[in-house]
Every structure is written in C-alpha cells, then in structure tokens.
Amino acid sequence: MKRLSERALIIAVTIPWCLLGLGAHQACAANPQPYRVTISKTGNSALDTLLHQSAQLETLRTKSPVSPFALIGRAQADQQRLLTVLQSEAYDAARIAITINGLALNNPNLPRLLRQAPAEPPANVMVNITLGPLYTIGAIQTPGLTTPHESRALGLKIGAIARAAPIVSAAAQLQSSLRNHGYAFAKVAPPIAYATIGHHSLILHYNVALGPRVAVGAIQFSGAPALQRAFLARHITLRSGQPFSETALAKARDQLLALRVFSSVATQTASAPNPPGQVPVLFLLQAEKPHRVEIDGSYSTDEGISGDASWTDRNLFGRAQRLIFAIGGTGLGSSTGKTILLQPGYDAKATYIVPDAFQPGQNFTADIEALRAYLPAYNRTGVLANIGLERPWSKFIDLRYGLGYIGEQIAQEGVNRRYNLVQLPLSLRYDTARSLLNPTQGVRITLRVTPSLPLSGGSGLFLNAELIGNTYINLEAPGRGVLALRGVLGRIFGASQFQIPPDQRFYAGGTGTVRGFTYQTVGPLFANGVPQGGTALDAIEIEFRQRIGKSFGIAPFVDAGQVAANGTPFTGTPRVGVGLGLLYYTSIGPIRLDLGVPVNRPPGGASFAVYVGLGQAF
User: What is the CATH number of domain 26-130?
Assistant: First the structure.
C-alpha cells in the first residue's frame, strides 16, 4: 500500500469533515468567492453607464473569480476608481460607500466572515453613490502669461462644468497656441485646481513659462544629396524671418513628404535662440529608393481579369520629377451575361510629372497612352495624349485643367468609325476623406467639366458635365462601422445621343454605379441587348462597412441608377442591385470580394456579378 505524505493525509482527513461534519444544511467556505454586485443609480443614465464600465467588481465578476480576501481588495480599489470617475465628471464632493453582506470594507470581522461564508448564496456587494453638488469653473489663473488674450486658447469658460478632460487638455492647447504665435520655448504646466467648498467651484491655476518670442532662423536640409536644396527651400512655404509656428513646421514637413521621394521627414529645432530672436530649423530627410515597381490586379465577372505593372523613377532630374511607365492587360474572360469573351485588351501609358511647375505648389503632368478595349457597348483602339496643371486652391480643394487629344477607332453594332477630338478637361475636387483605399470619415466631391471639339467623326462641340459625391460616416470608432454613400449625376450638353462618340457617352452598371449588373448595361439598349450609352446619368450607392475582429469585415450594399438618352437625368429606366462585400484588412488596404445581384435585370442580363480587388468599392 502506497504511503500518503503528511500533507495528503491532512487533506484526506479534512475534506470529509468539511463536507459532512458541519451539518446537513451548511456547506464549505467558498474559494473563489462568488458574489453579486449592485450599483445605485445616479439619475444620469450616461454617468451610470460610465460607472458600470469602470467598476471592476462588475466587469471582472465572471471573467476573473477572486478569493474572499481578494474580493475585499477589489472593492477597495473600486471605491477609489469610481470616486475618480465622479470627480472627473465634476462631482468633486461625491462619496462612495461599498459594503459586502452589509458590512463596511474596513470592518475587522469582514475577512473572517467571508472565509466562513458558503458558496450559496453569493456574497452581496452594494455600491452606494452620493453625487453631491456639481462643481463649475469659478476662476482661471495663468501666471507668467503676459498676453492675457492668449488664454482664450484654453477653451474654458467661467461657469462651465468643471469636467477633468477639458481642464487637463487645456494646458496642451495653450502651449500649442503659444508655440504657434512665436513663443517656440513656451511651456504650460499641468493645472492645479483649488476647490471653494461654499461656492462648489474650482479655481484653475496654469503656470506659464513664456520664453522669448522668436522668428524662424536658417532653414537647412539633411539627408537628400540628390535633390537641389534650393528647390526644397522654394517648395515649402516656410520662410526664414517669419514668426515661429509649429503648425508651419508641420505643414512644411507634409509638403516635403508629398514630393514622394522621402520615406520620412523629421524636424529639429535649436534648444535656444541662435542668434538671438531666431530659431534655426533642420529637416532630417530619409530618401526613398530611387525606383519603384508596382503590380496590381483585379477581377470581376463582367470585366474579366485586369492586371497592370508599372515602373517609376522618383527623382529623374534631381527635383522630384517622376517618370512612370505602365502596361496592363484588360478584359480577359469578361462576360456579357451569356457569353464569356476571350478578347484581351491592352493599355500602355507613359506619364511625366513635374512638381512646382511655373509656381510653387503647382504640378505639371504630361502623358501619352495607347489602348485597345473590348467592352459590352463597343470595341475601341486609340491613342490619347494629355497635358495639364494641378494646383491646390485651398486646404481641401484642388483644381485641375489642361488640354487633351483623342485619336481612336470605335466599332459599335457593326459600324466602324474614326474619331479625332480635342478636349479641355477641367475638374474641381473637395476632399476631406484623407484615405484613398479605406476612407472612414469625411467628404469627397468632384466636379468634372469637359468641352470636346470633334475634328472628325462627330457633329460639333459638346460638353460633358459630371458631379460625383462620396461621404463616409463613422458610426463605430475607430472606423469599425462606416456608413458610405456615393452619388453620381451627369449630363451632356450640345449634342444628341448618336452625335456623340460612343466612348464619350454615359454608361452605368458594374463598380462605380450599379453593382450586380453587367458593365455598361444599365441604360438604353439596342435590339440585341448591346448598350447604346446615353446623355444623362444618375446613380446612388449605399453600403455599411462593419469590421469583424482584427482583419475581417462585411459590407452589405444597395445600388440604384439609370441612364437616359434624352439629356435629362432621372428619366431613364431605374435599375437596382443589392449584394454583400467580404473584406480582409491588410496594412495597405482591404482586399475585397463583392457579390452583387440585379433586382430588375434586363432580358439577357447576367443574374449576378462578382468583383475582387484591393481597396474599398468607393
């Protein structure tokens, strides 16, 4: 027979007595100690929610069981934690009283009674809250600040509720404001609050070390030997002699990054004026690799497989000029609804971009493109050439204008025709969305107006006008639940439907307008189902992007749109598509697979469409 150790013998003898020797209606002491918790209501539902979310007695009750002694420690910690929450909400005279089974936490008998308490019923934890009066801001003091009007940057008002978050953040706001008004070395200490009990108010004390007011001194650049430093100095809007401003430094940093030749840009300023009254600024630049290769691809059942590769020289002549060669294949395996087409097209393009052309902040772009495309509405072979200028009009508005030429041959419904057009494209874009592949908030509005003069193949001057608006509403921060909406409105002036080259008409269906329908098939059709194209367009897309976990997401959507041949929007045959997108989020952007189904498809149209690509649908 195996010999029991002394500890095992004690356990073997003790357990039966614990279970049997205490009487028929008494169980052993519980470890861990189950408990239930009740938090008294304050009359403020938002505050009640905040208290429940902050109380570990509640949030850890089932997740992390505790021993009887640890339960007392958890309650004591919550007593201070909840008091801090109340004080942060301006209840500086609030009181918290917590009892366990009716006993105060400092009762010397509580540990013994909890050790003896059975598992059932659970211990009863009561959290009683007394709010007391709501405190307000009674006075604001800023010793050391010689320009009293600057105190407005605190963003605080006498008589306002004295909540902790705005009071604490006000110090950083004031310091930032001072450093943006020439006081490069200003420091604002964290606030000290003095309570006036009788008036239920706080006196806020912000100690300011102002320092001298200075200007921007010498501007230097480090780490970019291939770029002419005189060009960099002209490119940024920061100038020596202007009042020092951290915002101006940040803007200059962003302007350097926008050249796309630096992987990182940091600013370094002197720790003291040198010479007196000036602060030298050094930009620390880390250059990107001189060349870049990109490969991209997408698939949809209506347009087939598309892929392209590009090569970029980031800094061709030492002033951030970019030269880009791109070549792509399009339309392999596209579908018209019943037939799979094996007619791959091509698209070869060369682009040259010159920053700060003619004036700082203005980009010059020249490109030439050769393409062949087999589309549901027509087949097209052509050469396109464009030159243009792009410049910022304001912080969120860009203006683009230029001159373009199109020489092409188009086949539609068995008719081949050559066209030569000269165009004057103009676009105005307002963009606060900040992200190209995964916008989660903001607005993006684009107005395009393109007068076109056919030199051959057309009837006369016509004008294509198109307004596109996207908005993104963040319903679950940060970007986990986003309502995205897109609207398109277009009209062609000056010519009738068939006086306009087929590729200049409006089409809808597919990504960008009405998903679920075959590309270009929303609108007037010929008798055999081939799209005609129209002179007016309107469409709307609505989807909700819900992120699930860290990397996955879904996006149910509803699209609707119509194309009319009479030049009047909202007069065509409305088409509606519904569907679901599946998303996998990467560091670059989401990889997205969409399945769209037409609600009222035309005869011969596809019964569904699948789209795969990188980035959101819009």
Answer: 3.10.20
